[in-house]
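Input for the complex:
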Amino acid sequence: MLGLNKKDFTLLLIVAALVVFAPFILNPFPADSAMAQFNAGYPDLMQRFVIFGIFAIGFNILFGLTGYLSFGHAAFLGVGSYSAVWMFKLLSMNIVPAIILSVIVSGLFAMLIGYISLRRTGIYFSILTLAFAEMSFRLAYSVLTPITNGETGLQLTLDDPRILGETATATGSIPVTNFFGIEMRATEVMNVGGWSFQFNNGYYMCAIVLLLAFYLAIRIFRSPFGMMLRAVKSNQQRMNYTGLNTKPYTLAAFVISGMYAGLAGGLMASMDPLAGAERMQWTASGEVVLMTILGGAGTLIGPVLGAGFIKYFENIFSKINEQVLHSWFHALPDGIENAVVWVLEHFVGSGWHLTLGLLFMLVVTFLPGGLVEGGQRLGRLLRRKDAEKKTATQSTPAE
Amino acid sequence: MDAIILQILNGLDKGSAYALIALGLTLIFGTLGVVNFAHGALFMIGAFCAVSLNKLLNLSFETVDPTRTDFLGNPLKVKTPYIEGWFGPDLGHAIIDWSVPLAILFSIPIMIAVGFIMERGLIKHFYRRPHADQILVTFGLAIVLQELIKHYYGANPIQTPAPDAFKGSFDFGAMMGFDPNTIIYPYWRMIYFAFAAVIIGGVFAFLQFTTFGMVVRAGMADRETVGLLGINIDKRFTIMFGLAAAVAGLAGVMYAPINSPNYHMGMDFLVLSFVVVVVGGMGSLPGAVAAGFLLGILESFASMNEIKSIIPGIDQIVIYVAAIVILLARPRGLLGRRGVMED
Amino acid sequence: MTNFLTRRGLLKTGAVTGAGLALPTIFTSGASAFTNEPTGGTVTLGFNVPQSGPYADEGADELRAFQLAVEHLNGEGDGGMMQTFSSQVLEGNGILGKKVEYVTGDTQTKSDAARASAKSMIEKDGAVMISGGSSSGVAVAVQGLCQEAGVIFMAGLTHSNDTTGKDKKANGFRHFFNAYMSGAALAPVLASQYGTDRKAYHLTADYTWGWTQEESIKAATESLGWETVNTVRTPLAATDFSSYITPILQTDADVLILNHYGGNMVNSLTNAVQFGLREKMVNGKQFEIVVPLYSRLMARGAGENVKGIFGSTNWHWSLQDAGSQAFVKSFGTKYGFPPSQAAHTCYVQTLLYADAVARAGSFNPCAVAEALEGYEFDGLGNGKTLYRADDHQCFKDVLVVKGKDNPTSEFDLLEVVEVTPVDQVTYAPDHPMFSGGALGSCNAGA
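Predicted:
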């Protein structure tokens, strides 16, 4: 189907089902219950899951297939965001031209950086990409402020020209981003019993883009081009000795993954029209590396899982404060309640980084293949019978 | 001219910190083949050894002074460090004053222990794993270490002053025949530079002139062959990890009076020290040291007003520009060896 | 968390179908008049503060103040500044009889993370007001978000002119003072202390707040006769300022002005003292250092080096008015140490919001904004204060402070030198340093 083999098609269907029903899946607890804290089914976080999923899928095309570890991919995401916001400022609030421009600009930027950086391999390549990204960040934060609005981030204002749209709405507000009239931030709420499910236009827009991006990634993974990239990973020297010039292939992979990052950046700006320089900082580049490794580098679905994992902790665990903890454990006797709260406090709220760091260590120590391997082990445990078959599914690492 | 001399001094000073961190990082790269993202955290822990000793020496008992009041209007509790009670105010004060130099002694066993525990407890399981996994686990460790420090010491910088004797600055200009007060340099920064030189010299001498060092160097060049000769190279590598941790820690202890330590100072130095190591060339200790000083001096020159007025913002990016130029001109950095971390 | 999100520009089902989704008709469409209208017995406020990164301690102090304010609003504790507040409509039974609940989040001092956190408060928790923050970049970013979403933003610590200047928003309000006010208050004191014949050298953090701070203090000192020798931008990421400080030795400048905040300020001040600048004599005058924006929490990191150095601050716990004393007592009794200026402004902002809701009789952001605009109050620690309608900036006295020579405790670092009266720091709404933006119209969302 769609040029995919059966396994890949099933995977695509599973992913499609997951993203379409995400508003239900991510909201398992009634809104009134104490566990509602763990619900992640609100528009902003769902959008972030999907957008960072796209970012990580793109990163994985480079890292998972060719083994080139770029430490500067956030620069492309940032450039994509800036392009999109400038499009909203100058042209119109329609997201289509904005996203097209962000993909093109980040592609060109990736072409330039890739052309130079790919002259080196291994850690030398990583440091070159890091250097370019850090330069972009620092300049955007300071000297390039006329273009990037520096620390504050590039925002829309009431006096932007928007030549194909309106400068301000009739009520005196900044117009909202839309897809041919469909407003990105409009949300429908469905209340069923104690549950409240939110359906956001922007989220579904992102979801459609994710599915397209995912489909394209599968096709790349399974194509002769993808095979060539894997050959580069296993032994580039041998490839060169056979008289084959690998550079066009690696450069193509670099540019494609840069365009994925630009797409993610453009979508991010389309959901929330602001572009901040921190998006390009090395920590942001490091984050996508962590997402990919955590989920399982070289697997199709791993990077998306890794992205979801990190964003979940960032957004959910950081919001659990002392008050929430007390409300969970108020049934316990006072002394025990305070002790439990005191212990847990270290790991939530302002301590969310600690939990994340510990989980990085645990996952990579015990699940060498990342979260995907965890899933596989779980699957094997559940269905011991066809354990043999299971390891051969499409989620097997590329190696 | 005096401006240039001053910037060279500044550069040597910054370079000392970069070189010390990069030296430890290269020891771990070169001997163990591990990408250690927790190395910045070791530097930070070193600085907090100084902070901790300072706090320890300042442990105080309270006496109530009814003549003065605190912010709530209650009688003021005056704190006196126990040390001053035990040794008398003068000697006690002197001990507290010298807390940073004392912390050098205090930190060496701690840093070596931290290094051993890290290597035996965690890193050794990752020798045969891909570099990506090493990055993830050491990055996780770095986060955990810095969060623990944040939990006990807070996020704000903590002042850790140098002994009063070293507080002033030295008038270089007068000595070299310039006008007085044009080229002055703080004593502590000069001590930092001298200290770094001693440590670097010590590490090189250790590797060059001892049998242990010889074996380690052989192991860096060809681990398998050394193993085949029946030498327990693993044990030596553990010791090297402890040594690298101690070097990073000492760099941190001595840095504490220059800039007040805070919990994320390790992350601030991490990326920079990787750039330094790679520019120096993978697997080369002299390369790491040379790159540290080179980038330190370049950074200082780039922050001169005359240069900033020609290229605005150059001081923000000079290190990265230099890294790109050097890596494009010399494929393996300044002194890198072929085949180390190239795939 | 019982009320559900309904947003401005809710779409008709038809349009959603157009996006390729056939939706069943069981959706409840927006029946409320504004975003997150509280319908139950509680109202949720969102406190968005830095919990990680360099300003985490400041964020923690803000959070303490918010918790204290919520306690007082709900009638617990000793009531703090609610007793001294000139407006007495708050009764200690929550806001409009609804019990106040709150949610917290981590801004990480990054615009993106701060917006994500604020959005989750609005979309998931139903917050009707967002407050907090410790940097201007974050304040401006979150203020823009609140404007779009239709909730009120009560800014925390943000000192850039832009927050109520070119980036001002109808739904955003700032109690904290700004860079212009710092300059206007500080310059006369500097002139009387150090004379009018001085040559100043500026080191400025290279981002928007630093630039507005530099512009403000430069204009203020120059108008009193000072000469500006040079203004040098330093990278935000800089930790060692030695290479920016040594060039000062080669100039004939006799004052160094550090337009730095937080960790930058601690390091640049420490470095400047290391290089012996404070013992230096230039043109027969003692060399001086000035830090325009002081933060007591951060000043601790610079230790001895702050002694005798002038700066300005929004509020200080040693003030003797009834409001300040009530607040210090209530905060100090609960937490064991005096509050910071960040804690003070956050506490006051929460009270002011609650009071405006009570006076307006509605949580509707437009009604609240109207109640706050042009509102004059007293008893909250800064004397008589006006929330100006033109730009939603509070106008009040500004404190000029100096690092204390003989501190009695670790909190006793600053002493108030002068309380600059509000008239001296007031400026026209169309002042060039604040021009360029427009408030726009208030947005109630839904």
